[in-house]
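Re: that chain you flagged

S.,

Sorry for the slow reply, it's been a week of failed gels. I finally had a moment to sit down with the sequence you sent. For the record, here it is as I used it:
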Amino acid sequence: MVNVLFVCLGNICRSPMAEAVLRHQIEQRHLSDQITVDSAGTGDWHIGKVPHEGTRRILDLHGISYENMKARLVSGDDFGKFQYIICMDKSNGDNVRKIPGGEKSQLLFFMDLLPDEELREVPDPYFTGNFEQVYDLVNAGCEVLLERIITDKLEQA
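Prediction finished late last night. Pasting the structure tokens below so you have them in one place:
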């Protein structure tokens, strides 16, 4: 089983959007029995809350489920469980590295999946309000990530 964790600040906008989008792409490819997806935040303001209204709205628009998703914090246990820990920006990567065990973990940064994009961090729509832009980036990046997982992990199994 390949396990993917997306990380953002509050775990209500970017990372749950990425979780829902990648899960949807995995289901479309009939790979749910081989890949799991989760998301977490580095800040504790929204623990236990459902995704932000803007995230829910854009996912609804695209017919993507976010059922049973609730914000949680990244924990030290995550470093042993997830093969892919993908941070939405550098600040969250820095915060993950401060968690015991995080300093040794191999992190990926989401925008590294989209090297042709000018942006190097996924903008936080909690502050920008631009959930459509984030959805477009997340959708494209998740497609690249899924192909990478299939090539690197599933085809070699």
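What I noticed first: The CA atoms of residues 94 and 103 lie 9 Å apart.

Talk soon,
D.
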